[in-house]
Write a structure and sequence with these properties.
- This protein has helices at residues 2-17, 68-83, 100-112, 129-137, 162-176, 193-207, 224-237, 249-261, 277-284, 296-311, and strands at residues 37-40, 56-61, 87-93, 117-120, 142-145, 157-159, 180-187, 211-219, 243-246, 269-273, 290-293, 319-321, 325-327.
- It has two domains: 2-159 and 295-323, 3-Layer(aba) Sandwich (Rossmann fold); 162-293, Rossmann fold, CATH 3.40.50.
- The protein has ten helices and 13 strands.
- Strands 1-3-2-4-5-6-12 form a seven-stranded mixed beta sheet, with helices on both faces.
- By secondary structure, the chain is of the alpha/beta class.
- Strand 9 (243-246), helix 8 and strand 10 (269-273) form a beta-alpha-beta unit.
Length: 336
């Protein structure tokens, strides 16, 4: 038991140092023709595994192996698992991005393979429930970092308050427009809790500004190319657009590309979610006003930690919120 507690302590340290966030669990682009895509955490951790401590095999199933945010979560998962020599983690995703049907198949395979715990970011918060129920029946703890599931017995969900940040970003957009203007929204994937909650936040923020007119709101599946296509359609349909709110930065980068192609990028304010170097460059260049940094590596590290605790008989909180930081020109340097 002392050896296991030492592992848990070292894991707690990693979870807090990946992004500087507080650990909460103790509250008890790949080619499209790869199928299924997967990565395997290093089998060479910093110290040799102690044979007296059980080795745990975890499976992490993402929404898409072509989504940069999910790839960053995989990096966090592998870093977390590498710290604890008695955790092996397989990171996999559907061949077809955001295919809940393929995610269900991957959960079923993880059950067949005897996984000790399953972690999944559901592509469809309702559609994934049958797979969660199968894991429940097999006695395998299942956690949902980042994206909630709307059913089944989930060990824990760990993520940000998507509604609140959507509200804050919507408010920032309206304030930048001084309370008057025509705006559009680029949504994520229908049925996905992350997208739904963020959109709801935006919409409620807009209600506070009678001078703001929502022209249109369309999904682009968290995808840069689809975000560009949706924005192209908006530009053709609406001669005046003052602001663009998006559910993630990949879609925003596509939208910016569409606007620049027709010389309309200076006409509108863009706000979004998530951070990478492209997004930070866009903020510094004035193409994006503000984004939300949701510390995805801390989310997955805490989820793995929660699964490890559960495997050793500890209780964990059913919901754990990771703080989200708003990023503007004033603090982009922190994230580089």
């Amino acid at each position: 038991m002392k050896k296991m507690l030492a592992c848990l302590l070292s894991f707690t340290i990693l979870a807090s140092t990946l992004t500087g966030c507080t650990v909460g669990a103790s509250n008890a682009t790949a080619a499209e023709n790869q199928a299924p895509a997967e990565t395997q955490a290093s089998n060479e951790p910093a110290q040799a595994a102690d044979p007296s401590v059980k080795t745990y095999n975890f499976v992490f199933i993402v929404k898409s192996m072509q989504f940069s945010f999910m790839l960053s979560m995989i990096d966090g998962a592998e870093a977390a698992a590498a710290l604890v020599p008695n955790i092996n983690i397989k990171c996999i995703g559907p061949e077809t991005p955001y295919s809940v049907e393929e995610q269900i198949q991957l959960v079923e395979q993880a059950i067949t393979d005897g996984a000790d715990a399953i972690l999944i970011t559901p592509a469809d918060s309702t559609g994934i429930v049958p797979a969660i129920e199968k894991a429940n029946a097999a006695g395998i703890p299942i956690a949902t970092p980042n994206t909630k599931a709307y059913g089944g017995d989930v060990l824990t969900w760990i993520g940000v308050d998507n509604y609140t940040v959507g509200y804050e970003l919507g408010t920032a957009l309206c304030e930048a427009l001084e309370g008057t203007g025509k705006v559009v929204l680029i949504e994520g994937t229908a049925g996905n809790s992350t997208s739904t909650e963020r959109v709801d936040g935006y919409l409620d923020a807009f209600k506070n500004y009678p001078g703001i007119e929502l022209l249109d709101s369309q999904p682009a599946d968290f995808n840069r190319e689809k975000g560009m296509t949706v924005m192209e359609n908006f530009l053709q349909r609406y001669p005046e657009i003052d602001g663009v709110g998006s559910i993630n930065k990949d879609m925003t980068m596509g939208a910016i590309e569409a606007c620049k192609a027709v010389g309309r990028d200076k006409e509108m304010v863009q706000v979004t979610f998530d951070v990478d170097n492209d997004c930070l460059d866009a903020i510094d260049a004035g193409d994006i006003l503000i984004t939300g940094a949701q510390e995805e590596k801390s989310q997955i590290a805490n989820a793995i930690y929660a699964c490890l605790l559960a495997c050793n008989g500890y209780k964990v909180a059913p919901e754990q919120y990771i703080p989200m930081t708003l990023v503007t020109k004033d603090n982009t340097n922190i994230y580089r």
